[in-house]
Design brief:
Layout (H helix, E strand, L loop, with lengths): L3 H14 L9 H8 L3 H13 L3 E4 L5 E4 L8 H8 L13 H23 L2 H13 L6
Antiparallel strand pairs: 1-2
Length: 139
């Protein structure tokens, strides 16, 4: 359901949300840590930076960091930036089956958008934290 670009982008911003205050992370470092393709992450970083989700510290030792607080960044904003098909209209014209399927898919899409607008990066971070707290280590 989600394009890889969205999946990688959400992982990218989640990794940035884990950074300490006033810290930043380079794309190559993050790609290695998360086992993601560097070129793909570079394109994602450019798109997210152009749209105000992340900022960059240039120069030696530079890298990316979140431009806003976790609660201010809605998952909808990230998905909209990274999924070119998100705004594409689903046809509801034509034969009966096309119309019925189009109407159904538009309803599902509207619910999906509503859900994404209600979730922030803070909520995603919460899922990450909850999941990691349940992990048990055995020696």
């Amino acid at each position: 359901m989600f394009p890889k670009k969205v999946y990688y982008g959400l992982r990218f911003v989640l990794a940035l949300s884990l950074l300490k205050e006033n810290s930043h992370l380079g794309v190559a470092e993050l790609a290695e840590k998360e086992e993601l393709p560097v070129k793909f992450l570079e394109a994602i970083a450019v798109a997210l930076r152009k749209n105000g989700i992340i900022n960059v510290k240039r120069g030696a030792g530079g890298g990316y960091f979140l431009a806003r607080s976790l609660g201010e960044i809605k998952l909808y904003d990230i998905v909209l930036i990274l999924d070119e098909k998100m705004e594409k209209e689903i046809s509801t014209s034509g034969v009966n089956s096309e119309k019925a399927v189009g109407l159904f898919m538009n309803t599902v899409k509207a619910d999906y958008i509503k859900l994404l607008k209600n979730y922030s990066l803070e909520d995603l971070m919460s899922h990450y934290s909850d999941d990691n707290e349940r992990i048990m280590y055995y020696i």
